[in-house]
Amino acid sequence: MSKPVKRYNLAELAYPDIREFLKESDIIMIPVGSCECHGQHLPLGTDTYQLHAIVKRTAELTNIPYTDPLMYGYSPHHIREVGGGIGTMTLRASTLNAILYDLGRCAIHAGFNKIMYIFGHASNLKVIDAVLRQIRYDTGAMVGYAKPFAERYMGVVKDILEGGPEETPGWHAGELETAQVMAWDESLVRMDRAETCVAKTPDWLPKEFKKNDGLPVINLDGYEYISFMMEHQDFAPKAIMGNPFRASKEKGERCVEAYAQHLAKAFNLLKPIKVEVKHREFENRAL
Questions:
Q1: pTM for the complete prediction?
Q2: CA atoms of 74 and 126, how far apart (whole Å)
């Protein structure tokens, strides 16, 4: 009889498997993505799929389990017009924080002491500081997060991506994201629909203001002190910032591996740390 495949996703495990993981390590990963418009050529689950690839590989390198990735995140700026058929599914900040709190408390209740949220969608980071701190204050657990994506900071993928800064290769539906979805499932990518696009200044701002990428800041005279609450289509009408034609499956696989190796190093360093949870039971789990 063939040896069973090693699995790390809690949804695919039975409780004796969880107990085996806890014998070696008290760390668990909770990946959180999004379901939002990513141009005409990428699926709405782009942030979640590429994150799942990274987390799955990290688990293989560290023998650390993870919860099934949360497909929905904070994406109000991607909803667009009523009845427009865009398909974005967003959670309100209060809803997302409630889910993150409950997942963390369940993991601590089960016996994990170190809760690492892994975010594949940058806008989730705008709303999560308070809730992650609250989990720590309520329980004493170690609570942290990782954000294995690029945007302005190329980090471990800088030598893999080929596009220059003018192409914003780490941004929305560009070179990096297209490549990593190819690595996850190439059949999800419709390159016959792809376009190269750059961010633009919203039409409702004076021409002196400049918009270079997806951050909420506006550039004036070379400085970035001012931000506006913008919709994504204000500066990226087709939900693309970058050159997806530079993407390849091989490049995506290299990026996934680079991120996973970095996370694995971090988590292996965290394994020996002793954390004393002061309050483990999740009593208010019903309301």
A1: 0.96
A2: 9
